[in-house]
Amino acid sequence: MTEDEVRTAMAGIGPDISSADRDKIVERVATSAKNIVKLRQELFIKADAPVSYPFLWDIAQRDYVQWNGLGGNGGLGPLGRNTGEVIGVFGSLDWHEGKRFSITSLLTGQGWTKKVVEYDSSINTQNLRRIENQLTELQSPKWPQDILGKLDQTRIKRGEKLFANYCVSCHAEIDRSSPQRRVVAHMSKLEEVGTDPTMADNSIKYEGYSGILRNQYVGAGVGDVLLDKKAPIAALLTKATLGVVTTPDADKGFIRRWSEWLHNIFQALFSNEIKDSNKHGNYNPDTTMTPYSSLQAYKGRSLNGIWATGPYLHNGSVPTLYDLLLPVCQAEQKDAECRPEKFMVGSREFDAEKVGMKSTGYEGFVFDTRLNGNRNTGHDYGTKPAKGAGDLPMLTKEQRLDLLEYLKDQ
Ligand code: HEC
Does residue 381 have its Cβ closer than 6 Å to ligand 1? Predict the structure, then answer.
């Protein structure tokens, strides 16, 4: 924009930009399609880290749900997680200054007298809670031998031993049908697991303007963060989520609004058997200086039902389980068996041999692992020759097939 354009857009707007001012500026600037595109590029952060949709079973039994361990699953955690998701994906949220003191302003720590921020949104927390409740009963599927082929018990026995040596330290086994089961996430920091870092890095490196949320406090694990002019998106999202959860649905009549709201909060709090707990694994802990550094990690967890969930890894960069047990090859090893550099996604046909979705022979779109965010590197357990005395050797082809058979049976 030229200086003149900036002056016109900012005319009559004071140093503290209110939500009404914000709308006015956007209206003045977005006068042509070209300007709208420019504005978008300024305002929105590029989406460059695709994440594979996670499976839903055992959600209610986990300590941490998201790939990078964002937000615990205890107490109001699930309601917060689902609300945050809707804010990020489908919902509309208009936070703006209000004059009135309310329960929300009290619960979000905004004090009694000054202007408060109100969080009007399209988010229906009651329905989110109901959907989450339904998942409590869900169990992972077993390999259907009558449809996908009989499992080889001799291979499974051998595979089980390999799993115990190579894998179980990060992927604990659980009883899929026990109502008391708990699924513990085993976090591995990026340097350790070596998979594409973009998603986890984005989650802590993105910053945004706080706008009217400036000078408010947000709880992080190791203490409160004071929102400055610019603040980590993780902190802003936490603040917005808390605001939405503590705001009763404005579309409903007074009595219904408040009784449903109270019921929701109580239900969400007291029906959740998961309590907040420290993370397991090998990760960089949060500190007062870096309150979000534990999020630069990905989670290993129980692999029950894993056969039905390809493509694999947080970014879906490996089409089948068999491929995950192969190395990523350099140009000079082109004859070796390697994880595919490019493959088709979009098929609904199951590949019972390599275990995943078929990735050739149909119209889909190409997943290119050479792009940032799409990398298929890392998680090289069993895929590289031993270097030191304590290292486990690279799996042979027969061992890979044994382990694969075992994974089918999970
Ligand atoms: C040191 C910890 C660790 C060890 C050992 C380990 N894994 Fe993992 N595993 C992880 C982490 C962390 C992830 C998630 C990585 C990501 O998505 O970027 C993962 C992901 C996976 C996935 C993909 C899950 C999904 O939903 O896409 C499978 C399958 C898997 N591991 C199988 C194995 C097998 C088989 C072994 C043994 C050969 C093994 N792992 C050894 C930590 C480990």
Answer: yes
